[in-house]
Specification:
By secondary structure, the chain is of the alpha/beta class. It is built from nine helices and twelve strands. The chain has a six-stranded mixed beta sheet with strand order 8-9-10-3-11-12, sandwiched between helices. The protein starts with a strand and ends with a helix. Bound molecules: adenosine-5'-diphosphate (ADP) and magnesium ion (MG). It is a peripheral membrane protein. Keywords: Amino-acid transport, ATP-binding, Cell membrane, Membrane, Nucleotide-binding, Transport.
Length: about 250
């Protein structure tokens, strides 16, 4: 569903991702762990087409993301191609990123109406469905500022789901929350992880949670995958010294 082949990303002279190879299978749940500044957010932002790449190729759902084929040639992706590709994915950010001047319901219906061309009625039905899923049905007419951080992040998840993506990306979805609000957001994500028809790529420092929900853990450092495998292996008996050192900081 996601495939990075020799992907290089630089900011100025600094190489952030160095010929990264990385795959996520359809419906697989993968968690990326790693130190701050190792390139985790950059991977997700590249997938969302918020950042471009300098070299390599990325496929999403079998199609090249940053390229397209035209007249038997590979050319840089057009805005139209990127728009089509973005429909495969939704992302939940650390800082909720809700529209502050819109009600909860409108936050959710905005993309379905304007990007996916649903009618107001269809979009409202979707909003109700996903607000119910995240347990916030009674807050539909409130503004984000009237909600707790945990509730805002649950709205952000409902909003991300409302475009019916095949792939959900989460970038440290609980890092900005007070500790007592982390659980309610994780339990929503856990429910999503139980869906068999959703591909999930998650960045988190919640190791216990990652262990429970992931099919695979990828430890990255300095833009490279140092070690990957099933959670029991990576957490219980990490092979690489760098993984061991990183995990020790969480005990
Ligand atoms: P992580 O999410 O693992 O903490 P990031 O992917 O956010 O790491 O960042 C990786 C590196 O790229 C960091 O050193 C960061 O400072 C740098 N970086 C990220 N975004 C930019 C940017 N827009 N301009 C310059 N450097 C950036
Ligand atoms: Mg980050």
């Amino acid at each position: 569903m996601i495939k990075f082949e020799n992907v290089t990303k630089k900011f100025g002279d600094v190489t952030i991702l160095d010929k990264l190879n990385f795959e996520v299978a359809k419906n697989e749940k993968v968690t990326i762990i790693g130190p701050s500044g190792s390139g985790k957010s950059t991977i997700l932002r590249i997938l969302m087409t918020l950042e471009s790449i300098d070299d390599g190729i990325i496929h999403v759902a079998g199609k090249p993301l940053w390229h397209e084929y035209k007249n038997a040639q590979t050319v840089p992706a057009s805005e139209d191609h990127l728009r089509q590709m973005r429909k495969e994915m939704s992302m939940v950010f650390q800082q909720f990123n809700l529209f502050p001047h819109m009600t909860v319901r409108r936050n959710i219906t905005e993309a379905p109406i304007h990007v996916h061309k649903l009618s107001q009625k269809e979009a409202n039905e979707l909003a109700d469905e996903y607000l119910d899923l995240v347990g916030l049905s009674e807050h539909a007419d409130k503004f984000p500022s009237q909600l707790s951080g945990g509730q805002q992040q649950r709205v952000a998840i409902a909003r991300a789901l409302a475009t019916r993506p095949n792939i959900m990306l989460f970038d440290e979805p609980t890092s900005a929350l007070d500790p007592e609000l982390v659980g309610e957001v994780l339990s929503v994500i856990q429910r999503l992880a139980e869906k068999h028809d959703l591909t999930m790529l998650l960045v988190t420092h919640e190791m216990q949670f990652a262990r429970q929900i992931s099919d695979r853990i990828c430890f990255i450092d300095k833009g490279n995958i140092v070690e990957e495998g099933p959670p029991e292996e990576v957490f219980t008996s990490p092979k690489e010294e760098r993984t061991q050192a990183f995990l020790k900081t969480f005990i």
